[in-house]
Model the fold of this input.
Amino acid sequence: MRRTLQAIPLLLLISVILFVILNNAPGGPLAPYLQNPHITPADIARLKHNLGLDKPIWFRYFVWLGHVVRGDWGYSTSNSEPVVNALLDRLGATLELMGSALFVSIVLGVAAGIVSAVYRYTFLDYFITTVAFFGQSMPVFWFALMMQLLFAVHGIPLPFGYEIQLPSAGIGSNSGVFNLGDRLVHLILPTVVLSLLSVALYSRFMRSSLLEVLGTDYMRTAAAKGLTFRAILFKHGLKNALIPVVTVIALSAPGLIAGAIVTETIFAWPGMGRLFINALEQSDIALLMGYLLLVAFLVVFSNLLAGVLYAYLDPRVKYD
Done:
């Protein structure tokens, strides 16, 4: 509870920084209206007064904060709806994509790291390392386009006249009807693209951490007692090796939203990433504030979750 309460002033500080930056951006909150040739300077002055933009920025911040506390995050000029509604309408699609990418990243990354550590300096280790370096250095937008070209445009031919042909964009073939199989097929390409970097990152950290644990005295003692290597690895070694990996996962998981901005744009996924790009193009300050605050909250929450997992994985961890 104490750590949760400590996060409140941090979020307030982040909101102050975001509010000052966005309200001092070129055009400011009135940027969408300044692009309209039919709006006169008198109209701009009237809008400033009606929206309270002629008040000091500190006064406007406290007014905005008071509305946020009451659940009013402002009105989106680019979507013509309240910011909360705009975010909630697209939050499900983003969480669906993020959850799929995070699950794939953790499973494949941790498994690849374990295999690479156990069979270190073998062909398998070198192969996993090469794939990891490929994943860490590959630009997301280029890899996404190549995946579309390979699996959606051309397709992968299979024996007996079959081929792998995946949809290139969208969340489903029929947006009005939910079909689990169709949704999973549409998830494949964006999930692979979004999880590529995380798989590479988690596998490298898992390999390094497990190699360090395998060389400790208590692991050699367990082997001297006659325990099998599998029991030593999964009962004694893996839990301790996961501690630094948990840190990386907790800190990088919210970063999937940033990666989802590019991925959702390329694959036309109707999530918050495309919403952010649209708000950025149209200088929708209220929507940008809502989106960035939500991301900040996810980062802080992930750090708190990592602290809880530390205590579970390592009983020696105590919080004073």
